[in-house]
Amino acid sequence: LNTNALKMLIMWIGGADWEALADIDAAQQPIHSTMNTYFNSGNKDNANIILYSNYPPHFKFELPMSPGKGVIMAEDANKGFWLVHTAKYFPNLAGAIGDLFSNEKTKKDAAAFLCMTYSDVNLRAIAKIIDYEQPIVFFAQRSATPATQAFYDSSEIQTLVNGLHKYQPTASTSGDGITTFTPPGPVKIFASAPVAYASDIYSNYVVKILQKSFQVYTPGTTATVLKKSCVGTLKVENVLGPITVKDTVIQKGEDSARWSVPKSDSDFICLSNTGRTANDAKYGATVACVLSKEAAALFRNMIKKENLDACPFFVYKLPGGKSSHYLKPGEADWAALADIDAQQQPIHSTMDKYFASGNKDHANIIAYSNYPPHFKFELPMSPGKGVIMAETANKGFWLVHTAKYFPNLAGTTATLFSNEKTTKDAAGFLCMSYSDVNLRAIAKIIDYEQPIIYFTQRSASQPVQSFYDSPEIQKLVNGLQKYQPIAATSGDGVRTLTQPGTVKIFASAPVAYSSDIYSNYVVKILKKSLQVYTPGTTTTVLRKLCVGSLKVENVLGPITVKDTEISIGQDSARWSVPKSDPDFVCLSNTGRTANDAKYGATVACVLSKEAAALFFVYKLPAGKSSHYLKPNDADWTVAADIDAQQQPIHSTMEKYFGSGTKQNTNIIAYSNYPPHFKFELPMSPGKGVIMAEDNNKGFWLIHTAKYFPNMAGTTATLFSNDKTTKEAAAFLCMSYSDVNLKAIAKIIDYEQPIVYFTQRSAAAAAQPFYDSNEIQKLVNGLQKYQPIAATSGEGVRTLTQPGTVKIFASAPVAYSSGVLN
After folding, report:
1. Would you put residue 723 in left (φ > 0), alpha (ψ -120 to 50) or beta?
2. What are the boundaries of the signal sequence (predicted)?
């Protein structure tokens, strides 16, 4: 098939052949139907979700970390699913079912999807096992109702999500009690943690525990794949490709799926994002093995002597579109080619249980992927992808998949495969049903991979949610476990609705060399010497620049805000002021360290001595106490909790959370430490929110806080996480016309920020703001900038005083470059 075909092959567990070729996102296809259970549910906020992947939606490249990809989604009936997959940019839960395979990153390569239904108990167990891999959890959602979510708040899910666990030994295997709801039943899950030495999960763990020789599919050559292991009775051989799925040949370099089968007596098939390369051996890994002789026989015939298996179904989406085959129970060959999201296909039917349920908020869901919806590139971290979804009847499923940008649980079943990132590459889907006990065990295993959980939901069906609130799910969701040359500047047309309005925005993209945005751009454009606040010492901060008339000096800290001293190491804020004639203040996430200079950066400079008609909030460390500047005041206000109702952050964000029509807002949120992430991403440190309404205005909130804001939560939970409250942070909010917000988006894009959440307003079919070139390039990473820096003009003004804000942007370059250059 060509790269635009979007075809897939589906295999039902127990089936003797793949289903006919079909588009993977067709309504009748299993991936579509599975994910549509969430997208079309009508109450998506009532699902517990953990998504992990090292190439989440909107990420521009794959993160060099654990490759696990999957989704855990649990409902309120004590059940859910685990979707393990190998697709990039999948799933985008902020989109629609029709968008899941619309992105070229998803469609380009072949990928495998394995979806399994489990009880919430088993989903928690799975989360506990996955946690060994240290997957990149890029989206998590706790069900909005009821208040108590036993599944999501469980230790297993919390450990997986928050990365609080440190595992010894370095690997884990599920017991026989982790069984899916329907045949085949037992699914053997292996997970290994990243260690200081290279460790091949197949030769070190899988063959030894299963006591069987294995043939492992890793597309490549004998020079790129680890040597086969032929010593002893337990051997590991390599399947190098190309392979043929049903009647379609998948060439080397076109497939993201990695699977394996026993060399003889093949009674099961294993799916993973990890193959047998030197790079694979550096990171954590998860391997899910499904017991099915029919599926194993298919894979042996399909590729030399190997086969693959899944609980309810195994889906293989072909590269370049949505066509797929699947294996049905009792059949010995793949189903005919069909669209993966067609209504009669297993992914569609599985996900549609959530999306079309009418009470989506009654599902516990954990979706994880390192290429979640809305990410511009794949995160250089754990590539695990899957969904655990558990209902209230002590059961659920685990859908493991390899698709990028999938699933977007904020969309519908019809949009699951609408994104080109999802449809571009081939992908595998393995769905297995489990009891909630086993889903919890799975969650525990998944957590080893440190997956990127990008979506979670705690069931709202009842206050007590033992599955979601279990330690396994909570650790998976909350990351409680610990394991071993371009730039832009805003132009003069970026103006606020009322006078005076200008904010100057500088942004730089990550490049192959170090680039200090202050010394390279800001001082040169503003023609003023700067003093830059970077907490540290003379040995940790870049040297001051004292040559010439434009100088850069370092403010090392500690500092005192109002009456509170903020020590070095307690502050995420980075700001700067002119050395003389201080008529503006600049805010950024980037300081002047060697590490800062490696990534893109954004600096926003507000030209105003009074800082009127906007608010600048400084949250103090170790809690929620804060000061803010009111218009025309010459001093900070008295200390108060930052989330109190009368405080500016609360009142600003409450306009969204308390509106009753949240879906009618256009939103772009970006950060290198988004909610549910276990650690700070080593990329552009920019953090902010652009929110636009339907009357041609909105605001830009720049901040330096970690884990903020969680758009899947409420106003009351904005500052509930200790990652947000631990350190001091700064917040700068400015109102703009939509024209200027678009200009700001164009400048921000120079920095290559990590966009972790987007929403297109549902108020009207036409959305000129969200669909504009500026916003689409920011969200989808379509722009390549020259030159390497830019600065906003005088026309970029806020709606009210102070007016002028100067914005600088520099791109990452191949050499060290300070923004002051």
Report:
1. alpha
2. 1-22
Mode of pairing for the β-strands spanning 333-336 and 17-20? parallel
Q: Is 638 exposed, middle or buried (0-12, 13-18, 19+ CB in 10 A)?
A: exposed
Write phi, then psi, for 468 (nearest 5 degrees): -65, -35
pLDDT of residue 633 exceeding 80: no
- In 3D space, the residue among 327, 314, 268 whose CA is nearest the CA of residue 428 turns out to be 314
Q: Rounded to whole angstroms, what are the CA distances from 73 to 124, 190, 457?
A: 11, 20, 8
CA pair distance 448, 382, nearest whole angstrom: 10
- Name beta bridge partners: 396: 434
DSSP codes of every residue in 646-699: TSHHHHHHHHHHTSS-GGGSEEEEE-SS-TT-SS--SS----EEEEE-SSSEEE
Helix (H), strand (E) at residue 119: strand 111-119
Distance, C-alpha 337 to centroid of its chain: 30
- Residues 216-239 have pLDDT tens digits of 988 888 788 887 775 555 778 888
Most confident of 545-549, 675-679, 775-779: 775-779
If one counts every other C-beta atom within 10 angstroms of the C-beta of residue 546, the result is: 9
Residues 433, 118: Cα–Cα separation, whole Å: 4
d(CA 495, CA 473): 46
Hey, CA dihedral for 79, 714, 589, 778, is it positive or negative? positive
**Report for 73-87, 656-670, 776-790: range of highest mean pLDDT:** 656-670
Amino acid at the residue 371? Y
Instruction: Read off the tokens for 285.
Output: 């890994």
Can you give the pLDDT at residue 75? 74
Q: Cα 440 from chain centroid?
A: 21
- Give bridge partners of residue 109 from the DSSP assignment: 425
Question: What order of strands is seen across the sheet that includes strand 214-217?
Answer: 171-173, 187-192, 285-291, 268-272, 258-262, 214-217, 236-239
Q: In sequence order, which ranges of 101-201 are alpha helices (DSSP H)?
A: 104-108, 120-130, 155-162, 201
Cis peptide upstream of residue 812 (ω within 30 degrees of 0):
no
pTM, 2 dp:
0.51
Q: Is residue 612 predicted with pLDDT exceeding 50?
A: no
* H helices present in 519-580, as ranges: 523-526
Distance between CA atoms of residues 104 and 88, nearest Å: 9
**Number of continuous H segments (helices) and E segments (strands) in the chain:** 17, 53
Contact between residue 283 and residue 274 where contact means Cβ atoms under 8 Å apart: yes
CA 443 centroid distance within chain: 17
- Does residue 262 have a cis bond before it (omega within 30 degrees)? no
Asked whether residue 495 carries a pLDDT value surpassing 60, the answer given is no
Measure the CA–CA gap between 77 and 623, rounded to whole angstroms. Answer: 36
Q: Pairing state of beta strands 333-336 and 322-327?
A: unpaired
Strand partners, 628: 617
Burial 606-631 (b: 16+ CB within 10 A, else e): bbbeebbbbbbbbbbbeebbbbbbee
Please state, in angstroms and as integers, the Cα–Cα distance from residue 694 to each residue in 201, 554, 651, 706, 815, following that order: 52, 43, 19, 29, 43
Please answer whether residues 791 and 807 qualify as being in contact, where contact means their C-beta atoms are separated by less than 8 angstroms.
Answer: yes
Instruction: Give mean pLDDT, residues 297-307.
Output: 59
